[in-house]
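Page 47, continued from p. 46.
Same chain as before, 167 aa.
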Amino acid sequence: MDWRDQRAGCSLFIHELSISLLGIIHSVPRNKRSLSLEITDRDKNFRDVLMHLYEWHAMLERWYREGMAGDTPSMPAPGYKWRNLKELNYQIWMNYQEVSLSQAIRKLELSHERVMALIQNHTEEEIMTKKHYKWVKTSNLYSYFAANTVNHYIWAIQRCTEIAKKL
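Result:
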């Protein structure tokens, strides 16, 4: 199988995950979709989960844009280190408390399309070769794309399934 087929298969899988995620949300009666669980966890409702994904897409897009321009992206975000992910994720949660679920869905759909376009713009070699781009250091583009699509979508599906069961 050549890369075009692998990339198409990977893109299809990512697309199927996004459809599954939105399907979980749409399986809940409309009047319950914006409700929040009475829990101490950060992500209490569907909007929280979707905005988390959206913001991580936005960070990936910034890393990519800055890195491809020859700069060293501030990762994961300006003012944060990887060891501070709990604080960063809490700040993301705080930033989007006034966003509606319908706005969250639309924002995620648009950011998903942009990230998928980034993936489609590369060859297998560019995506899979470690150190191909200086900004990814000892890693490859695949690790960044997978972390911000497949891995995050699987987490989101699990979290939204939990939320849907408890509403």
